[in-house]
Each structure stands twice: as C-alpha cells, then as structure tokens.
Design a protein that fits this description.
single chain; 3 domains; elongated
Length: 479
C-alpha cells in the first residue's frame, strides 16, 4: 500500500462494575439464567421511568480524569432510536451533543504516539441474541439490557492495526487500574467497533470509512483491520468506490461480512431524553473522584525506572497489571533488590499464572515467601535450578522455602572440603576429558562442572565448583 495512508478510529465500550443497572435496580451479575434480571424500566414497559445510577456517573468521571478529559459540569442524556430485537424500548439512552467527558488523550508505543480521545460518555447496553446450533430461531436474553457502559471514542489518530491493538490494551489496563471495569473481553465487558478508511498519502481529506462492529479481542482488532485495509486498498487500486458499510468480523473465516449500510447520526434521530433531567455534576464530586484515582500505569512505569532502576522493558511488563505491579513492589520491598525480583516475577511467576490460568490473587506464594526464596539463592543456600524446583513446590503447597529445603535436604554444598573430594573424584573418572582440557579445549570445563553437579545431585555451589575445578586442573597442568 505505498500510495495510501490508513486512518483508524476506535469506539470502545466498557461495562461498568456497578451492582445495579444504569437506570434501574436490576442486578448486573454475569451468567444468570436468561431474562431473570429484568424489570419494567429496563424492558421499557409503559409508564416506567429511569433513575440515574450515581456510581456509574462517578466511574465515568474517573475514566475522564484518568485520560486527561474535561469533565462537563452539565451533560445531557439523549435517545438514540433504532429497532433491534434485543433492544426492547426501540431506543437506547445514551449521550450525544453534550457528553460527560471530552478532549482527552493517552499515549501508546512507549509514549511515542499520542492518540486523542474525542469523548467519554455514559449509555446503557443492549441485550444479547443467542443462536443455538441446529435451531432456526434466535433467542433474546434481556439480562444485559440497561447495564451501564462508558463509550470511549478516539480521534482518527491511529495509523496501523498494531497501534489500534496497543491503544485498546492501554485502555483495558487503565479501566482495570481504576477498578471500574473488569476488562473481560471474552464475556463482552470490553469490546470495540473500529472505523477505517484509506486516503492518498499527502492528502488531508478523509476517505470513505467502514465500521467493523463488536470486536472482543486484541487479535480480532488487528486481524479485522488488516483484512479491511487490504480489501479497501484492492478496491481503490482497481478504481472502484468504497461503500460506507457496517461490517461484522468472522474470526473463523478470517473475513468481514456486510451487516448493513452504515448509519449516520441523523439516522438515529437523537433528541434529549424527556424522562431524565440535565445531569448536573457538582465540583465536589469531581474533586472527590480525583482523589480516588490510583497511580496510573504511565506514572508507575516512570517510577519503576527512575526510583527502582528497572529497565524500561521490565517496567512495561510489570505495570501492565495493577495486581502484578503491586505483587512485585511488595516483594521488592521485602528483598531490597528490585531487579532480582523483576526477573523472578516476569519469569517464574507469570509462567505459573499462565500455566494454571489463575490471577495473582489466587497465587499461593506470598511476596515475603518469594523474597525469602530469592534470598536463599543470593546467599548461596541453594542454586538456581534447585530454587526453581522449590518454587514449583511452593506454588503447589504454599509452604515456606526454608521448610521445603530442609525437608528435602536441598541445601547447597558450599564447603570447600566437601567439594574438593568430589572434584578430585570427577577428574580421576574422566582422564581423557582432563587431558583435552589441558591441551586447550577450554569448553570441556562446563562438562566437568556438570559432572560435579551430577555427583552432588545439583547441590554443589556452581561458582565454587567451577573455581575448585580450575584450581585442581591447573595443579595437574603443573605436575
């Protein structure tokens, strides 16, 4: 695509972690039996009136402040009119001309790329259609109707599928840090629509855009954009026009399919919601919410690099999750060696969480226990291979490192007298290898060290074993 520039904007929907819905008292619990969490308000029955969920408003304000937005002291709810089987009122209560938050931004790609945020506004979710295999009917589950959402609309500042996925990942990290959304994309609590168009390089005029709806994974965002960019480039290269369509992504076939011709704002016939007053946000609420915002990923990353001396890559990995960052900090505080802890958390800890498909709250090794294990390695009590075995035991049982080491007799042999005898035995048992080493094949030292480790069942201190072997070999060279 040498002659085209890609223009991408994302509309990200995040379900807020409130106990009740946006405009009624129904539960937002996920996974309940279909149509058991509904009432006259969320079903749109005649005479039922909505009441705003204050916790949802506070969550939206928190997101706006965290992304540098201006919070409007007065905002207006609007009716977005459309017919769809899982929208029982035939309209959605959203915000349009007067959103709650606007003109924000965030950075991706290590802070190199700034992406503007047009608006963060409140709205209610629609229901869910269920299609059962072998059944020619569709079933509507209205439990999700009315669940509070924030919609985060970006400026068209994104220039590649990878950049779009990075932006989505950053938003997920922020909403999880703020604890306003669980970010569970598989359950649909975080999903996005992508708008994409192509234009001639050097042009400041936008091309005709298409929209791919309801993408619920970073991989799907990248793949759908790659497919759509290639499709548009091919059509433009053939001299054909792009139709402004709304598309669905088929992850199995790896292609997009036309859902409908894309609507414009006037198609939705927006008008102020007559059953709700203007949303007045007191300054005291904004100030209180501001004090509740924790240290965010970018600030935490900078501190890990500047104060703890971590490489930027380590800091990026550790701050991608608030819980992982907290576990790392607690362990580093216990041990006093941030880099050593970083190596263990990024290696063994994250691997264990991935293999067992658990999060850090379910991890059995406490920060002080991991610190104690690392301290055993640093003091020479055990070597690294043994430490990894002890770690796996701790992860399964929650036992202390010292107890496992004592019970299994894993203490590292550091006594030179004890190791001397093993070194002499190894050199006597491998005369040919000793002769080759003395003749200049230095790489055989690793083999001999390995034999010492084997003889001691991995308990020998590797560095001391190496030093004693070198000393004994030089004596034999001299003799």
């Amino acid at each position: 695509m040498p002659s085209f520039e890609t223009i991408i904007g994302l509309e990200v929907h995040a379900q807020l972690q409130t106990k009740s819905k946006m405009f009624c008292g129904c539960s937002t619990r996920f996974g309940s039996a279909p149509n058991t969490q509904v009432c006259p308000v969320c079903l749109g029955l005649p005479g039922a009136l909505p009441v705003v969920n204050v916790k949802a408003v506070e969550a939206a304000v928190k997101m706006g402040l965290a992304t540098g937005c201006t919070v409007a002291r007065r905002s207006v709810f609007a009716r977005k009119n459309y017919f769809y089987p899982d929208c029982p009122k035939n309209y959605q209560i959203s915000q349009y001309e007067h959103p709650l938050c606007s003109n924000g931004f965030l950075h991706v790609e290590g802070g190199e790329k700034r992406i503007g945020i047009t608006r963060v506004h409140l709205e209610e979710d629609a229901g869910k259609l269920i299609h059962l295999e072998g059944d020619d009917h569709s079933y509507a589950d209205m439990n999700r109707v009315g669940v509070p959402l924030i919609e985060i609309v970006s400026e068209p500042d994104i220039r590649s599928p990878r950049q779009a996925a990075s932006y989505m990942q950053k938003l997920r990290t922020i909403v999880r840090y703020l604890e306003i959304c669980d970010g569970n994309m598989e359950e649909g609590s975080l999903r996005c629509d992508v708008n994409v168009s192509l234009r001639k390089k050097g042009s400041d005029k936008f091309g005709t855009k298409t929209e791919v709806k309801n993408l619920n994974s970073f991989k799907a965002v990248e793949q759908a954009l790659e497919f759509e960019i290639e499709r548009q480039a091919r059509l433009l290269g053939e001299g054909r026009k792009i139709q402004q369509d709304t598309l669905l992504w088929d992850s199995v076939k790896g292609e997009s399919q036309i859902m409908r011709s894309k609507e414009e704002a006037h198609d939705y016939r927006y008008f102020p919601e007559p059953d709700l007053l203007v949303l007045d946000i007191p300054e005291s609420l904004i100030q209180r919410v501001d004090t509740e915002i924790p240290e965010l990923p970018d600030a935490k990353l900078d501190r890990f690099v500047s104060d703890l001396g971590l490489p930027k890559y380590d800091a990026e990995v550790l701050t991608s999750s608030r819980e992982i960052a907290g576990y790392f900090e607690a362990t580093a505080k216990e041990l006093g060696d941030a880099k050593a802890v970083s190596n263990w958390v990024m290696g063994e800890v994250l691997r264990e969480l991935k293999d067992k498909k658990i999060d850090i709250s379910q991890f059995k090794i406490l920060p002080r226990q991991l610190a104690a294990l690392i301290a055993e390695v640093q003091s020479g009590g055990i070597n690294m291979p043994t430490a990894k075995d002890v770690f796996r035991d701790m992860a399964g049982t929650g036992n202390e490192a010292k107890d496992i080491i004592e019970k299994k007799g894993l203490k590292q042999i550091s006594d030179e007298g004890a190791l001397d005898a093993v070194v002499v035995s190894v050199l006597d048992n491998y005369p040919q290898e000793v002769a080759k080493y003395l003749a200049g094949k230095d790489k055989l030292l690793k083999f001999l060290v390995g034999q010492v480790m084997k003889e001691t069942r991995g308990k020998a201190h590797p560095q001391k074993a190496t030093d004693l072997l070198k000393e004994a070999l030089e004596k034999r060279r001299g003799s």
